[in-house]
Design brief:
By secondary structure, this protein is α/β, with parallel strands linked by helices. The protein is built from eight helices and seven strands; from the N terminus they run E-H-E-H-E-H-E-H-E-H-E-H-H-H-E. The protein has two domains: about 200 residues, NAD(P)-binding Rossmann-like Domain (Rossmann fold, 3-Layer(aba) Sandwich); about 35 residues, no CATH class. Helix 4 links the parallel strand 4 and strand 5. Helix 3 packs parallel to helix 4 and helix 4 packs parallel to helix 5. The protein binds nicotinamide-adenine-dinucleotide (NAD).
Length: about 260
């Protein structure tokens, strides 16, 4: 409790999955949380849930790939909570395409998954400078590092996020802003659930499947909250000497 007491955090894509778990955990740890989410129904639901539990939250409908909207979201966050200490760049579109991907599919993947985090960071950093520093946590993936079938559009974007994390860490160290990425293996969120169900697998079958749970040393799929705890560490003052790192939170997937 209270690991983020007094801090203000923006979590993009916090209407579902890892982002939702992160927003809820951050609120439990004392942060005021801005839910920057494109889906109004989901974003509102998460913010209301946090407030019902006694936490502080604000939903701002946001498309991270729209710079004007991002600027408005940051201004709204500062008006509501006075400052910004933490940014979690979590929002994603899963465009999973191989060699036949169209220019539009490539643009969509890179607009949301690469340019999105870059734009949100661009407009959050001046606010972090005003308060003497901050922490940015990007969501990389095992997909930043490995090949997966029919995944070129997604894995190239995630590799870019990991590279961008290192570059931002270098550029922002002078401002006392740390920049890291959490890189999950398979997590039981809507994309994994729907792909497994399409393949005829429920969660138990997916955990045992050699290309899903079985591909991790721990032989299972993560819950979103397990990733949120790693993000919490990177965002908190406990990680004061950690910057430019891509922390694997992958049940040993990339150790094999
Ligand atoms: N689920 C996994 O197995 C897994 C594995 C490795 C990495 N990741 C990464 O973790 C992060 C979260 O993944 P998830 O599975 O929890 O996703 P999810 O699909 O459950 O949630 C993503 C959220 O982002 C929102 N969103 C989509 N486009 C947006 C936009 N333009 N602006 C703002 N919000 C937008 C969606 O509405 C949704 O609520 C992603 O960056 C993903 O690449 C996930």
């Amino acid at each position: 409790m209270n690991r983020l007491q007094g801090k203000v955090a923006i979590v993009t894509g916090a209407g579902a999955g890892i982002g939702r778990a992160t927003a809820e955990l951050f609120a439990e740890e004392g942060a005021s949380v801005v839910i920057a989410e494109i889906d109004a129904e989901k974003g509102n639901e998460v913010a209301q849930g946090i407030m019902r539990s006694g936490g502080r939250a604000l939903f701002v409908q946001t498309d991270v790939s729209d710079e004007a909207g991002v600027q408005q979201m940051v201004a709204h966050a500062v008006r509501a909570f006075g400052r910004i200490d933490i940014l979690v760049n979590n929002a994603v579109v899963f465009v999973l395409r191989g060699i036949e991907a169209t220019p539009e599919e490539w643009r969509r993947s890179f607009d949301v998954n690469v340019m999105g985090p870059a734009l949100v960071a661009k407009h959050v950093v001046p606010e972090m400078r005003k308060v003497g520093g901050g922490a940015i946590v990007n969501l990389g993936s095992i997909s930043s590092y490995i090949a997966q079938p029919q995944h070129a559009t997604y894995n190239a974007a995630k590799a870019a996020v990991s590279a961008m994390t290192r570059c931002m860490a270098l550029d922002l160290a002078k401002d006392n802003i740390r920049v890291n990425a959490a890189c999950p293996g398979a997590v039981w969120t809507q994309i994994v659930e729907s792909r497994c169900r399409d393949a005829g697998m429920d969660r138990a079958a997916a955990e045992a499947d050699p290309s899903w749970g079985g591909a991790h040393i721990l032989k299972r799929i993560a819950d979103p909250r397990e990733i949120a705890f790693a993000i919490l560490f990177l965002a908190s003052d406990e990680a004061s000497f950690v910057t430019g790192s891509n922390m694997m939170v992958d049940g040993g997937y990339t150790a094999l």
